[in-house]
Amino acid sequence: MYIKAGDTVAIIAGSDQFATDKKGNKTRKTGRVLKVYTKTERVLVEGVNKIKKHQRPTQADDKGGIIEKEAPIHVSNVALLDPKTGKPTRVYYQVVDGKKVRFATKSKTQIDK
Q1: Pairing of strands 30-37, 42-45
Q2: Residues with Cβ < 8 Å from 57, sequence gap 6 or more?
Q3: CB within 8 Å of 78: residues ≥ 6 apart
Q4: Are 8 and 30 in contact (CB under 8 A)?
Q5: Rounded CA separation 113/101 (Å)
Q6: pLDDT in tens, 43-59
Q7: For the segment 66-84, what is each residue's pLDDT rounded down to a tens digit?
Q8: pLDDT at residue 63, as a whole number
């Protein structure tokens, strides 16, 4: 999988794809990847795909109620942001100094240091 935890990604598909500002301009939602689920090919993105969960009071959290949390989103619905241009890009790999390194396709910029 070409996305790792800590990467900044843009949402390119789905109902949670755009954010609208006060003027009505649409911009793509972006966020940092918190966790990667390799078996189900999903990623947990910070601030995206929020769901509401009804939480029962427990000994650890004595106050229950409705909490908001992020839900995993499929990896095909996100694209890595190019470090140079800030736009969504694809990723390719090259071997540099004996290590497999990720590069942004649009600007040919190295992603991994």
Answers
A1: antiparallel
A2: 63, 64
A3: 3, 9, 10, 11, 12, 33, 43, 45
A4: yes
A5: 8
A6: 999 999 999 999 999 88
A7: 999 999 999 999 999 999 9
A8: 85
